[in-house]
Task: structure prediction
Amino acid sequence: MTMTLHEFAPSGNCYKIRLIAALTGRTLNRRHYDILNGETRTPAFLREINANGRIPVLELEDGRKLPESNAALFYLAQGSPYWPADAWTQARVLQWLFFEQYSHEPNIATPRFWLAHVGADNLSDLQRALLPGKMAQGHAALQLMEDALTATPWLVDSIPTIADIALYAYTHVAPDAGFDLDRYPHIQAWLARVERLPGYQPMTV
Amino acid sequence: MTMTLHEFAPSGNCYKIRLIAALTGRTLNRRHYDILNGETRTPAFLREINANGRIPVLELEDGRKLPESNAALFYLAQGSPYWPADAWTQARVLQWLFFEQYSHEPNIATPRFWLAHVGADNLSDLQRALLPGKMAQGHAALQLMEDALTATPWLVDSIPTIADIALYAYTHVAPDAGFDLDRYPHIQAWLARVERLPGYQPMTV
Result:
């Protein structure tokens, strides 16, 4: 028996779960949903998979379900070095995970979804009006990471944790939304470091 | 020596840290910043307190600093029943904490800040255009909580955890942003349950 990932494959939030699974030696069943056609908003999905109408959802072998990508990262990293042992280090890992969902994802993943999946010509007026502010805040989030990675090779001290996995997911595809990563040399070196981790798998597998 | 909370007192993100401290029998020093006058964006704040320019920041006795309200909740709840012992229950607590920052806070706390602190007459055209969508998504977040609280007395099973503390903070002041909680009887009963926890302190202390 293996766990199942309910996902939309191009989503970084889904990819981060596949990546931690690969890094910790697990195989996941994968079930695909077309979010562009509302497949995560059907009554059956809302009732059986996630009342919040979102992917990813990690389903355990016995059918228990866990929404929220970073909660799944936490769960799959248990017992591995990607979830460090002491509470202060854990708190700093969580600091980055909350930063990812509040300051990074809405400003990098959302523009990427709009531009690479919805299409620039199909955006609403409101989406178009939001884009410049999101790009500015996305660059601010990248700059914060750049500054942190100037001090240490990984986001929390000297070992890779799920903080790095969570933030790798949408950072490495930020150019899809027009973010030029040439401005962030320490981020680029860190991306390459993630890609050399034993068991690493790219997004497109 | 006690820890210090760098805060803006009316912020629910700051209140949740004061609340878990009270519930776990701690006293915190409090240092106030006027976010309406940019006091968390000064060079000194960015350098010494939080490079992300936000409050709250929890400062330990030895000067180490922890941004992100829910990371501080995690840290202060260690060793208490508010952070349960097994990994699956912990993952579900984190699920709610990420839901709070991604689906609840931007749609309830942000409208509250705009309406109660910035003032309806001072909103930008973009803020005004965003408000109806945020109110709709805020109600969706409240409905999700209502449904969960129909099944169990607390968000995760039958004991209060930091999931409840995190979501109490902005839910109980959601009427400041025009959310009518009469529509959510199970939320109202849960709010009252939180307010009966030993050590509970209101937001305005």
